[in-house]
Amino acid sequence: MTTTTPQYLTGNAAALNEFIDRFDVFLFDCDGVLWSGDHTFPGTVETLELLRSRGKQVVFVTNNSTKSRADYKKKLDGLNIPSNVEEIFSSSYSASVYIARILKLPENKRKVFVLGETGIEQELRNENVPFIGGTDPALRRDLTPEDYKLMAKGDPSLIDPEVGVVLVGLDFHINYLKLSLAFQYIRRGAVFLATNIDSTLPNQGALFPGAGSMSAPLIMMLGQEPIALGKPSQAMMDAIEGKFQFDRNRACMVGDRINTDIRFGVEGKLGGTLAVLTGVSTKDDILNGPVRPVAYVDKLSDFLGAK
Amino acid sequence: MTTTTPQYLTGNAAALNEFIDRFDVFLFDCDGVLWSGDHTFPGTVETLELLRSRGKQVVFVTNNSTKSRADYKKKLDGLNIPSNVEEIFSSSYSASVYIARILKLPENKRKVFVLGETGIEQELRNENVPFIGGTDPALRRDLTPEDYKLMAKGDPSLIDPEVGVVLVGLDFHINYLKLSLAFQYIRRGAVFLATNIDSTLPNQGALFPGAGSMSAPLIMMLGQEPIALGKPSQAMMDAIEGKFQFDRNRACMVGDRINTDIRFGVEGKLGGTLAVLTGVSTKDDILNGPVRPVAYVDKLSDFLGAK
């Protein structure tokens, strides 16, 4: 952890140019950096253009697990932010890559039980990972007395013997049956994965249950934490590096949250971390917290001062 | 915490008689002590008869929040265990008494938002506590985009301004909407209560999500623990004492779980605690754990040896 004072770049053209020149890759957290809610910050598009025009690789890194990369591209389109799918790295994609390429599952244990929405399902499909659960409408029902018996004895009509992974993301259709099934699978040896562990999800200026809140009952029941694949987990950094093959010394993580974004970059030993003040963390958090970025700006578009 | 060696009473008629004579009141945990699942242990009925014939007050203490005392009486009837409603103390009843008689709520904040089943609703009704949520079928639906806006601004069409308590018990119909509402209420100042914090619920020899698992997402989101009203919380002991007006020195807690039942009695400074080996805790837990009962028997019906 660095405890030096972060450099303030806003309004300092020379320092901004020097900072940009130090990196080949910029990893962007999105909400709170590029936009807030449905509102794109002024200058976001121009700043991304500036970086691209100087040959920088731009990557959009999001813990949002409900969307696939294709969905997320549509969201960026709707916000008028030019992008392509290959620049997007979501926790649903990160989790799918982890399962498909890193987890060594036995031949007969390759199925994933999903607690989550369609974004996860799409990314699993893209990686040819078989799955059950997720948005299956058959699971949107109450438990019956018969279910308890079938689950207790691991009856294959309810407990698929090929499930070797439980992947928990944000599930707007969480229910008692799905939680019960996820628990039985993990107790029977399935790997416990989470797309991300953000406890809350901001929306309309209020907070709502996040993906971490879906894992919370299972963590309490099992006395076991999941392997998390979103920021700040380094499993996500490894997956990003695996895809873009960059030099970590010449990569910079940009974000508004010290505890997730900046920590993600610092623990990933990236050459740079940059905080913006348009989101969650305050100037005091940035200057005096236990985790500090290399530099900070008031807002991302302050980079336009480098022109 | 006592660290003396628990006395083994099985087969020792004199010790059994002496033990019984020391108490006026016996508080019984039920599952694992009187029965297991749907199966009443042999000798349960005769043991309760023996105690009653010697003038002992018997109290059935259960963390089960889905049942009211009236429901629980029916369960005891079904197991052929004679009882009356006044002998039953459930966590749903404990919570209702706590809200009605102990919590000092402002006049305009007396409503309870319930995450739970009909047992809680019945006990709140018995204590004349107004409530919303619970089994209301209107809450068994998805969140709409409009809901996010209404919740964020605290619109009274969705956020009842009179709610001053969120009470979380076991809810077989837990969903994203209910969790979101519970969170908004607590964030707006409602008291966070839980009937009990057992993470799991045994059924058919397997484990399923318990009441504590319903609180888990809220605990993670809020960074705050609820006040729990079931064993081993002393709020429950206070409520039992308030009702039965006994001398704690002359009361004995009987149970199969060291961490809940025996701890409940020890922390409540009861004169006696008695463990049985027909449930969760083992002889090793009893003899060598950090919390130890005054005495133990292999099974409850060993008390018939006192005849």
Estimate what percentage of residues of chain A fall within beta strands.
15-25%
Q: At CATH's second level, what is the architecture of the largest domain in chain A? A: 3-Layer(aba) Sandwich
Number of domain modules of chain A: 2
- Protein chain pair with the most extensive contact, residues per chain: A-B, 37 and 36 residues
Oligomer: homodimer
Protein name (chains A, B): 4-nitrophenylphosphatase
Binding site for Mg(2+) (chains A, B): 29, 31, 256
Catalytic activity (chains A, B): 4-nitrophenyl phosphate + H2O = 4-nitrophenol + phosphate + H(+)
Enzyme class (chains A, B): hydrolase
Structural write-up:
Chain A is of the alpha/beta class. Chain A has 2 domains: 7-63 and 232-306, HAD superfamily/HAD-like (Rossmann fold, 3-Layer(aba) Sandwich); 105-228, Rossmann fold, CATH 3.40.50.1000. The first copy, chain A, is built from 11 helices and 16 strands. Chain A has a 7-stranded parallel β-sheet, sandwiched between helices. In chain A, a hairpin with a 2-residue loop joins β11 (200-203) and β12. In chain A, α4 (91-102) runs parallel beside α5 (118-126). Chain A is elongated and about 70 Å long.
